[in-house]
Specification:
There is one protein chain. The chain is of the alpha+beta class. The chain has a single domain (14-335), classed as 4-Layer Sandwich (Double-stranded beta-helix). The chain has helices at residues 36-41, 52-68, 88-103, 120-134, 200-210, 212-218, 256-265, 275-291; strands at 47-49, 107-111, 136-137, 148-150, 171-174, 180-187, 191-192, 195-199, 222-225, 237-240, 243-246, 249-252, 293-295, 302-306, 310-314, 317-318, 328-335. The strands form five sheets. Strands 1, 2, 3, 4, 6, 14 and 17 form a seven-stranded mixed β-sheet that branches. It has a four-stranded antiparallel β-sheet with strand order 5-15-8-13. α5 crosses α8. The longest helix is centred in the first third of the chain and has 17 residues, at 52-68. The chain is globular. InterPro entries: AlphaKG_dependent_hydroxylases (IPR050411), DAP_epimerase_AS (IPR018510), TauD-like_sf (IPR042098), TauD/TfdA-like (IPR003819).
Length: 359
């Protein structure tokens, strides 16, 4: 059965603009590619352990908002702005991490947020504030969720409109919306659900060595299905290349099942995938598996991933029977640059919000 990974518009308009800028590929700047096996041997490169001082900064931030806002428990979290908060020295560390995620290896794992001492509302406030130091949160679905819940709601994964984060099934390698995706672990699964990350720079270079002809297939604009979440005045699909150079900098965005679904759902408007394109996507996925880093989340972990230079996947998982013990992650889609015009997925019915629980 076909699984569907998460991928949405990183911009309502820019996703449909598959043209490259005036830079040629010979002038393209690449960041740091890496091998998952090497990364696994050097966790100090990507794991940051929360200190007591960091924990105090987080608690002081929550208390500062409580003292400055009336009716704290009824506060609309997405109304909290960067100018309303401070995270002290921890905030400075977050800015350093953001810069490294942008220009370096492309990801970090922050370990040890003390979520057990806070209410659900306080956790969401703290996570939102951490996100404000990284950039601007954008809408993740047609409902306008600025903070998403990765939780098995029992949705039918065989339906084309189903978003896989509402199920327990695996996700193929893909990229999310926004410049960066953040995942805060509230609860682990009973088993499975491991996270896989791979450098798309490494994938690109390996494809160039082995099959440069297939690289050319992924530089062409491809059709993507919008999963029924269609902005006003837009088609139910858009075009984008997998490999591109934006302002002279390498970027890769992919969602295989969204690419595969587009010609099936709109055969009168979109041609079928060529055999060579199918081969190119298969090679991309095979290389991602070959060079990926596996990691498991602990409660209180935050994974931050650059969507332009990394692709990620998730294994199928088994949950506990009790709803409160089921695997639960909080997700942020973040535009790291505030001059990015994207606001994420916006339809005629979208109302921006920060839900405290899965829905």
């Amino acid at each position: 059965m076909e699984e569907k990974e998460e991928f949405e518009n990183s911009s309502e308009d820019s996703t449909e603009d598959s043209s490259e800028d005036e830079f040629s590929w010979s002038e393209t700047t690449f960041g740091d590619g890496w091998n998952g096996e090497d990364m696994a041997q050097h966790p100090e490169r990507w794991i940051y352990e929360i200190t007591n001082e960091d924990s105090n900064d987080i608690e002081n931030c929550i208390n500062g908002i409580r003292e400055s806002k009336t009716n704290f428990d009824q506060l609309e979290i997405h109304r909290i702005a960067r100018c309303d908060i401070t995270l002290g020295k921890f905030g400075e560390k977050l800015i350093e991490m953001r810069n490294d995620i942008r220009r370096g290896i492309g990801f970090r794992l922050i370990r040890g947020i003390q979520i057990e001492k806070y209410s659900r509302f306080e956790i969401c406030v703290a996570y939102w504030c951490i996100g404000l130091y990284l950039g601007e949160a954008i809408s993740q679905n047609g409902m306008g969720h600025l903070l998403g819940h990765i939780y098995d709601l029992g949705a039918d994964h065989t339906k084309p409109e189903t978003r896989i984060y509402r199920t327990k099934y695996k996700q193929r390698f893909h990229t999310d919306g926004g410049d960066m995706v953040g995942l805060l672990c509230l609860m682990q699964s009973k088993s499975g659900g491991e996270s896989k990350l791979c450098s798309t720079i490494t994938i690109y270079r390996e494809m160039m060595k082995r099959r440069p002809d297939l690289v050319e297939e992924l530089k062409k604009p491809l059709f993507y299905d919008r999963k029924g979440e269609v902005p006003v005045g837009k088609d139910p699909f858009f075009q984008r290349a997998v490999f591109s150079n934006q302002n002279g900098v390498f970027m890769a965005r992919i969602a295989p099942t969204f690419i595969e679904a587009a010609p099936k759902r709109f055969p009168d408007r979109i041609p079928p995938l060529s055999a060579k394109l199918v081969e190119a996507i298969a090679m991309f996925e095979a290389l991602a598996m070959e060079f990926c880093l596996d990691m498991d989340f602990l409660p209180g972990d935050i994974q931050l991933v650059n969507n332009h230079t990394l692709t990620h996947a998730r294994g199928t998982y088994e949950d506990y029977d009790e709803p409160k013990r089921k695997r639960h992650l909080l997700r942020l889609w973040i535009n790291e640059s505030f001059d990015n015009p994207s606001k994420g997925i916006l339809t005629a019915k979208t109302r921006l919000c920060v839900p405290l629980y899965p829905e």
